[in-house]
Design brief:
5 helices; about 210 residues; three-stranded mixed β-sheet; 2 domains; 8 strands; FAD/NAD(P)-binding domain; alpha+beta
């Protein structure tokens, strides 16, 4: 499998295809007992655009869901929060949620960039509720489970920034920039001052009750 779906085998077997091998939310093709997962699978979306997910972690999740189905427990594939991670030479790039080139209506953006290094962070959030909708980081490695919980539980920009230490996943002895990020926010928003919280226990679960803390 690769970024461009290899659908030749499916075409030879009269399995319906589009850009990839067409499957439903259970990763089932239209042929009984034939499935597709990973880069070659094109998931059909009702009232939306079909999607192909050429990412290692979605392939893993699809494989886990399909394994349960084959074992007798028919399981729907649910991707959860969108995530992608890549490296440009030695610089880490990550995305959680959705950060578009141009902010959508009702969405604002907080941006911080290190003055001397290739390190930056952008967080998008809803104007009305301050609920965070996505983040991009460049040169900072974030902790997947923390951001997944924050986005899934509708945590606010205030909560995310004040607890940003919890999300850092850079190796030991790397520089940390949470103080600089919060200081930049406070400078941009003098009437809405934030205070960085101490590092919490890393396995703490974030619930809806924390979202507006």
């Amino acid at each position: 499998m690769g970024v461009h779906p290899n659908i030749g085998v499916a075409q030879q077997g009269d399995i319906p295809v589009g850009r990839g091998i067409l499957v439903n939310d259970f990763l089932e093709t239209q042929v009984p007992d034939v499935y597709a997962v990973g880069d070659c699978a094109e998931i059909e979306v009702v009232d939306g655009r079909n999607r192909i997910e050429p990412l290692w972690y979605t392939g893993k999740m699809q494989g886990e869901a399909l394994a349960k189905t084959i074992a007798g427990e028919r399981t729907k594939y649910e991707r959860g929060v969108w995530f992608n991670s890549a490296k440009f030479f030695d610089i880490e790039y990550q995305t959680y949620g959705f950060v578009f080139n141009e902010p959508l209506d009702g969405i604002s953006s907080f941006y911080w960039q290190h003055p001397a290094q290739d390190i930056c962070l952008r967080i998008n959030y809803k104007d009305d509720t301050q609920e965070v909708t996505g983040v991009n980081t460049f040169g900072i490695r974030m902790r997947h489970n923390v951001w997944e919980n924050w986005l899934a539980n509708g945590c606010t920009l205030k909560y995310v920034l004040e607890n940003l230490r919890d999300a850092n996943f850079d190796p030991e002895f790397f520089n940390r920039y949470e103080k600089d990020i919060v200081a930049a926010f406070n400078q941009q928003h003098p009437d809405n001052q934030l205070k960085l919280s101490p590092l919490r226990w890393l396995t703490k679960r974030f619930t809806k009750g924390h979202a507006n803390a």
